[in-house]
């Protein structure tokens, strides 16, 4: 049994899978961490995401909340608003596609609960044998290049900053979350960078991962934007 934690799921135009995602998440929490809570952040979806989430949460056996961001503000803003609203000592966010299976949750929650780290985050790079379904070759290689550039630009000692599966000791990380400014997809880098600068203990943890179709990240447009955000982050520090 896991200690109580808050799982935050940001979603934008996810009507095709949010119902299944929430069902799986609620079932997992009911069995493994019934004192936990699920926070869904609907980031200005223009489809039926909010209505589906609202209906699914009605029958939950654990505490739930649906936060609404309108208009769309970006994944970073959605994740931060969810984590800052958490009512438990530990907050974890997961992508809506559940690319990292929920069964990997204990790998992040337990090191924080045991007092080993302040942040634990999933990594695809530390043990690539754990990747079941790979991304298309071009996207996977682009991700490797991006993470190498992040290491060079920020001096962070991590190999995969972009896996959408991260957990935080909220008492230690609240100042970091409140100070963060990047609202787009590079928000992960900013949180890790600020935490590293603040001397927080950070653990990169190998996790199982499977590519899911329907990514909201445009390979060229968003990658360039993320690189600009990372460079600006380092220049402003």
Summarize the structure.
With 237 residues, the chain is of the alpha/beta class. It has 8 helices and 7 strands.
SSE topology sketch:
Elements: E1 6-11, H1 18-32, E2 37-43, H2 49-58, E3 63-69, H3 75-84, E4 90-94, H4 105-113, E5 119-123, H5 137-154, E6 165-169, H6 170-179, H7 187-197, E7 202-206, H8 219-236
Parallel strand pairs: 1-2, 1-4, 2-3, 5-7
Antiparallel strand pairs: 4-6, 5-6
Helix pairs in contact: 1-2, 5-8
Give a written overview of the molecule.
By secondary structure, the chain is an alpha/beta fold. 43% of the residues lie in helices and 17% in strands. It has eight helices and seven strands; from the N terminus they run βαβαβαβαβαβααβα. A seven-stranded mixed beta sheet has the order 3-2-1-4-6-5-7, with helices on both faces. Helix 1 links the parallel strand 1 and strand 2. Helix 1 packs parallel to helix 2 and helix 5 packs parallel to helix 8. The longest helix has 18 residues. The chain is globular. The mean pLDDT is 93.
């Amino acid at each position: 049994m896991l200690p109580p934690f808050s799982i935050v799921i940001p979603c934008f135009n996810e009507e095709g899978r949010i119902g299944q995602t929430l069902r799986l998440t609620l079932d997992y929490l009911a069995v493994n961490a019934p004192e936990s809570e699920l926070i869904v952040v609907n980031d200005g979806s223009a489809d039926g995401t909010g209505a589906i989430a609202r209906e699914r949460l009605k029958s939950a056996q654990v505490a739930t909340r649906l936060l609404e961001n309108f208009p769309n503000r970006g994944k970073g803003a959605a994740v931060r608003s969810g984590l800052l609203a958490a009512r438990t000592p530990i907050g974890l966010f997961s992508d809506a596609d559940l690319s990292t299976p929920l069964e990997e949750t204990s790998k992040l929650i337990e090191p924080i609960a045991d007092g080993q780290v302040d942040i634990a985050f999933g990594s695809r790079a530390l043990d690539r044998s754990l990747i079941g379904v790979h991304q298309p070759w071009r996207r996977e290689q682009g991700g490797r290049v991006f993470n190498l550039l992040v290491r060079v630009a920020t001096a962070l000692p991590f190999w995969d900053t972009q896996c959408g599966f991260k957990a935080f000791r909220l008492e230690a990380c609240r100042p970091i979350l409140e100070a963060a400014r990047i609202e787009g997809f590079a928000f992960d880098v900013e949180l890790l960078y600020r935490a590293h600068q603040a001397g927080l203990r950070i653990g990169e943890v190998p996790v199982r991962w499977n590519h899911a179709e329907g990514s909201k990240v445009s390979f060229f447009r968003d990658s360039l934007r993320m690189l600009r955000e990372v460079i600006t982050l380092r220049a402003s520090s």
